[in-house]
Please model this.
Amino acid sequence: MQSGKIGGPMVFVIFGGHGDLTWRKLVPALYSLFLDDWLPDRFEILGIGRKQLSDESYRERLRDGVDKFSPGKADPNKWTEFSSHINFRTADLEDKQAFAGIAEELGTYDEKWGTKATRIYYLALPPQMIKPVAEGLAAAKLNLDREYARIVVEKPFGHDLNSARELNVLLSNYFQESQIFRIDHYLGKETVQNIIAFRFGNTLFEPIWNRRYIDHVQITVAEKDGVGHRSGYYEHAGALRDMVQNHLLQILCLIAMEAPVSVNSDEIRQKKVDVLRAIRTILPEQVHQSAVRGQYGPGWIEGERVRGYRAEEGVAPDSPTETFAAVKFYVDNWRWQDVPFYLRTGKRMPSTVSEVAIQFRPVPHQTFPASALLDNRPNRLLIAIQPEEGILLRFEVKHPGQHMALAPVMMQFYYREAFKVRSPEAYETLLLDIMRGDSTLFMRADQTEAAWAVIEPILDMWQSVGPTDFPNYEAGTWGPEQADVLIAQDGRSWIMPTLLQCQEDLAKCRLAREQS
Model:
């Protein structure tokens, strides 16, 4: 990453400092920023948790996380320098008196540096701990400095619309909106951010980015892994809450939003809110036509037999929790009227892949004879988010030979090939933006509530009418049959993820060469 050191002193106070998120994501990201010379010369990382740990044992645990989850193992000299800024404090976060001690320690940093440091309070905690920590910070008056105090809240932000509203009210009682960073790590991914650059930095696609030329949009976020160690959380969430309400709807907003006047954070966030508010409400009687849920059973992935969701550790044997969700949305405005947006996400899919497919309408009049159109396909734009980051455009050309025959080809751009540099991890980007005070990639209060309002009718219906066919898809498949019906009833089908499709096309080409 290109260097641009943050100026003033900074203290990262990580509540949940001994947790998995800190170990896997936060400290590895901070270490990468340190290596790239982004962190200020004067900084401290203060982990807060219930465990009794010495500073040295805490640093050893964090180094293990850096070795496992950073691009490379920690350099001994660099790690020694970086870890000298890391300390751990044991505290009961439900005891307001504990925050007085934290405030006292933070004051010592200001005294040592001779100036006030920016304080970032990162809540790497379960949702139920947001309230006591926010109240504890307020009791110790650690929230009052609007310029220097920032609070970071991880997803899930609420469990439904009412709880999200209550959480927003709680936080707004103690912090200004400019101090609150509601984090969705998906928005830190390079390709997700590039959607804005691609759409509004080029004139080529904007004239056709509307209902006249686009037939439909598909957003797929698939995971090969099962629920893993997250069953305690996942049993109360499910795929709709865990993925659609935040990750997939955020991508939909970037695809559908109107052009912002500037890259000002509130300007961009307002355009996203406009999209969410324009999404057509799904009435209770329409839920079964617009949304599908599924749960994986046992199956095979890459030749290995894997168990079903209900057999996972910590999952109820009759669990009604969905591990797959597919939803059809409409954005009711002039640009997108009657263009369907198909969203799907699931666990235990054949591969881990995230991508957006923009399917264009067929040409209005076919000039060529039927014999020339044996493999004719509409134009398609693909935005690959993971595992490969890139943009691909499918268009028609003449196949070589003496006869007129059209064939689809793919124009491909991949970050790793074009720029030959490492793309920063999502948390690196987001942590740096928090340090800068840039809230562009973070959700505003009304945005979180608007997103919950979009899926609330589906949640309510699924809650009132439990599933009768779970598990309804095998691990290692692309979801339940009903998901295919959802899109097939509109005369369409799910698009094979780009990477897999390209692999299939290459295999066909190799086979054709061998046979010739």
